[in-house]
């Protein structure tokens, strides 16, 4: 089963991601993230640092996703593992929708087409929702940082996340990221266990 954690920078993803690995240790989960730990992930981080061409940067994120699926996600799912990824395809759909605006007509349709036919849709996505001001305060960014950390960018990213939820509500669990970490962890852990049990029941009924 593939679970992803999404939210704007500073929403608490990494904190939850690490804690979930422990809280769900009975599933022996594979803990992973995007951009990933491959050389392509390094190229992505360099593209961000050097503010590379937005199309080039977007395609590097897509290449990182392909490498992530091949090297981590597919093998782990094939072995029946629970996979938990800190950021995944929805980050591309919301962040690159902003960075490609005005460069590619209808960026979301283009991004969906680029992933179509080979990506893996998560079974559950936990979306941490916090006001942009709170996220910026937490990360100590005043909103003028790299283009992903600017207030107007994060506000649009947040809006685009909510549109993805409206399109596919059954895949998402939205958690208030301003709650205490232990409360968020409890809600998230229960959501994963519930979805896992649901899927097991479905598999039994289909036999
Ligand atoms: N639920 C929470 N309440 C208050 N502060 C939090 C919470 N979760 C994370 N933080 C703090 O906010 C900052 C960003 O958290 P982090 O998990 O790195 O977010 P992200 O990975 O989404 O950027 C860190 O300093 C972290 O300690
Ligand atoms: C995975 C992914 C991340 N990003 C952005 C979100 C982050 O601001 C930046 C780096 O991701 P990350 O290393 O997760 O930073 P953070 O821990 O601050 O969230 O890349 C995209 O623009 N597209 C993507 O597909």
Automatic annotation (TrEMBL):
Enzyme nomenclature, EC number: 2.7.4.9
Matches recorded under Gene3D superfamilies: P-loop containing nucleotide triphosphate hydrolases
Single GO term (MF): ATP binding
One cellular component (GO) term of this entry: cytoplasm
PANTHER family in UniProt: THYMIDYLATE KINASE, UMP-CMP KINASE 2, MITOCHONDRIAL
Assigned protein family: Belongs to the thymidylate kinase family.
Stated name of the protein: Probable thymidylate kinase
Source species: Methanospirillum stamsii
């Amino acid at each position: 089963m593939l679970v992803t954690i999404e939210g704007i920078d500073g929403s608490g993803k990494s904190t939850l991601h690490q804690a979930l690995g422990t809280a769900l240790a009975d599933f022996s989960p594979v803990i992973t993230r995007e951009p990933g730990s491959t050389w392509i992930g390094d190229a992505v981080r360099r593209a961000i640092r050097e503010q590379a061409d937005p199309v080039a940067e977007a395609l590097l994120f897509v290449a990182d996703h392909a490498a992530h699926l091949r090297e981590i996600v597919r093998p782990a799912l094939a072995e029946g593992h629970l996979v938990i990824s800190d950021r995944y395809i929805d980050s591309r759909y919301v962040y690159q929708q902003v960075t490609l605006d005005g460069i590619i007509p209808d960026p979301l349709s283009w991004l969906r087409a680029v992933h179509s036919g080979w990506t893996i849709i998560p079974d559950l996505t936990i979306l941490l929702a916090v006001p942009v001001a709170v996220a910026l305060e937490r990360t100590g960014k005043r909103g003028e940082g790299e283009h992903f950390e600017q207030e107007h960018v994060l506000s649009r990213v947040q809006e685009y996340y909510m549109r993805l939820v409206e399109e596919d509500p059954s895949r998402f669990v939205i958690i208030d990221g301003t709650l205490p970490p232990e409360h968020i962890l409890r809600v998230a852990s229960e959501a994963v266990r519930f979805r896992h049990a649901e899927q097991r029941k479905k598999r039994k009924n289909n036999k």
